[in-house]
Write a structure and sequence with these properties.
The chain has about 375 residues and is of the alpha+beta class. It has two domains: about 140 residues, Sandwich (Immunoglobulin-like), CATH 2.60.40; about 140 residues, Cupredoxins -  blue copper proteins (Immunoglobulin-like, Sandwich). The protein is about 15% helix and about 35% strand. The protein has six helices and 23 strands. The strands form six sheets. A six-stranded mixed β-sheet has the order 14-11-16-21-18-19. Strands 15-23-22-17-20 form a five-stranded mixed β-sheet. It is globular, with a radius of gyration of 22 Å. It starts with a helix and ends with a strand. The chain binds copper (II) ion. Copper (II) ion binds next to loops.
Length: about 375
Amino acid sequence: MQRYLKVFFLFFSVFVFGFIVSNSLWASSFPPEFNPPILFSNPGAEGDPDPDITRDPDVSAVSVLPDGGTFEIFANETVAPLSPGEDRKWGTEDDVLYEYFTFGENESDTKVPGPFIRVLEGNEVTIKLVNNGTTVHSIDFHAVTGFQGGATELRALSGETAEFTFTADVPGIYIYHCVGDGSPMDIARHPHNGMMGMMLVEPKKGNFRKALDKADKEYFVLKHSMFVDKEATTNEGAATFDAEKLIKSGVTDYCVYQGRMDALIDHPLVSSKDDNVMLYYGNMGMVSHFHIIGEIFDNVWQLGDLKSRPLKNIQTVDVPTASALAVGFKTDVKSDSLGKDNGIHILVDHDMKCFMKGSIGIMVVE
Ligand SMILES: [Cu+2]
């Protein structure tokens, strides 16, 4: 009997030792800045980035243009923290700064993404682009048909203003983004640097209209992948876009929501139990696999199409690059019965490459 016990303890010790070693190896194989700040004792880095480029994901708190009309967008260039460093603290020398390009609602609005623009099907919409940046900026609206989505007319040199009017006659949830001077490099660089946003053209009728009219809360989340050269810094010590990395390796440094690491951990989506939530999810990075841990999407209006019937009961949905969609769900938290529900839903890109590089956000159901 004693012999069996000895053999058992020998195997047990080897198992425990192996477990400890493999876990520490796993943990140490990622730079600390990429260790996901969740699960859930360490929600995000300490402190606050300054300035904070995060646009509030609560749609009720951002731009609304219910009846068409003129809408001003201000192009700006600004340096802001993109990621905490290995110390997992904001506001230290360790921060990775980035030179952002932004679309704002006014002169001083330097948030990413650009303002959420909402119009009703059939509205006449005038966009006025005021360029406060140092280089040429423009806007390609995916909601606009015609050459460059209006970007040839909505192109403004530094210090200039451009204007463009169109009729938003095709309902959908759309991306808009800068294309700079229209060259391939600018088309890649300007949205990468933050010049992108979403536009909702609400249908007048149909199943989405009915669902939207019943929504208690609306949010928008824009994901993008960032290829960053930390060595080629600007005068202000900000990292810049690494085109070579994008083209040659395609291995992204960061996958972020609302422009920076931890943005939707520091600014969670907040809703109440049994709310009908409508969430618009846009992607300007690699193909995204959107999932909310602890939630099933009751309805998914895929690829920005708000006219077709939605898919039902979806766990994870793919969103191509430069596309957007709407998901609807009720925050009918069922896990109360487990006695340990904390009301936290976690938004992720379920592609683990992206997840490990920052695509994590939180929805708090109060
Ligand atoms: Cu631009």
